[in-house]
Amino acid sequence: MHPLIYMDTSETGDTTAAVAIGYVRRSHESDARTVSLVAQREAIQKYAAAQGWSLAAVLEHDGISGGKRSRFTVLDAAVKSHGAGFVVAYHLDRIARDAAALLDWVASAATRGVELHIVGRGKVETVTASGYLTTGVEGLMAAYFRLVVAEKTRDVSDGRARVDGLLRGGLSRSLLRADGGAPWPSAV
């Protein structure tokens, strides 16, 4: 498993087309139900072509958590080296599962004239209050999901389910049996 695969996709050397960088990622928790890196890459290529952009490179992070901010350094370097004005990802949670990092990066990229685009959605903007709120909420949901998966993974690896006011998944203690046993079958 390679932490980063850098694939140069420029074929024509066309310097008149707007330049884009693709970004694909999956975490180590990925499985067969996850959209593959190949499917993400193909969707990005189609999106860039539909926009009339030259896709200069696709950065691939395989087995890297969406909470790792160091990924942005590599992405920024690729944008700079190719003079890209666009970054295209399959889904916003592929860019980051850290709401603060996502908002910081999108705002920073925008000041450099770089737009983030999501396949099937278009430009991600954080300039307007509504755009900032929408991106922030989606980023928070992605971060929440990352934390929930981490908790469940930790619980399974510890070999026990934790009861600390709430059972994982949001069932309250009031649904526990009076003798402290497992939740009633109808409550699960």
What do these coordinates show?
This protein is an alpha/beta fold and 188 residues long. It has a single domain (5-158), classed as Resolvase, N-terminal catalytic domain (Rossmann fold), CATH 3.40.50. The chain contains 5 helices and 6 strands; from the N terminus they run E-E-H-E-H-E-H-H-E-E-H. The protein has helices at residues 37-51, 71-82, 92-95, 99-111, 129-158; strands spanning 5-8, 19-26, 54-62, 86-89, 115-118, 122-124. A 6-stranded mixed beta sheet has the order 1-3-2-4-5-6, sandwiched between helices. The radius of gyration is 20 Å and the shape is globular. Mean pLDDT is 78; it is low at 1-6.
Order of helices and strands: EEHEHEHHEEH
Which class do the helix and strand fractions yield? alpha/beta
Note the gap between the termini. 37 Å
Which stretches are low in confidence, meaning pLDDT under 50 for 5 or more residues running? 1-6
| CATH homologous superfamily designation | Resolvase, N-terminal catalytic domain
Keyphrases for this structure?
5 helices; 188 residues; Rossmann fold; 6-stranded mixed sheet; disordered N terminus; alpha/beta; 6 strands; single chain
Short structural description:
By secondary structure, this protein is an alpha/beta fold. The chain contains 5 helices and 6 strands. The chain is 39% helix and 17% strand.
Secondary structure layout:
Layout: E1 5-8, E2 19-26, H1 37-51, E3 54-62, H2 71-82, E4 86-89, H3 92-95, H4 99-111, E5 115-118, E6 122-124, H5 129-158
Parallel strand pairs: 2-3, 2-4, 4-5
Antiparallel strand pairs: 1-3, 5-6
Helix pairs in contact: 4-5
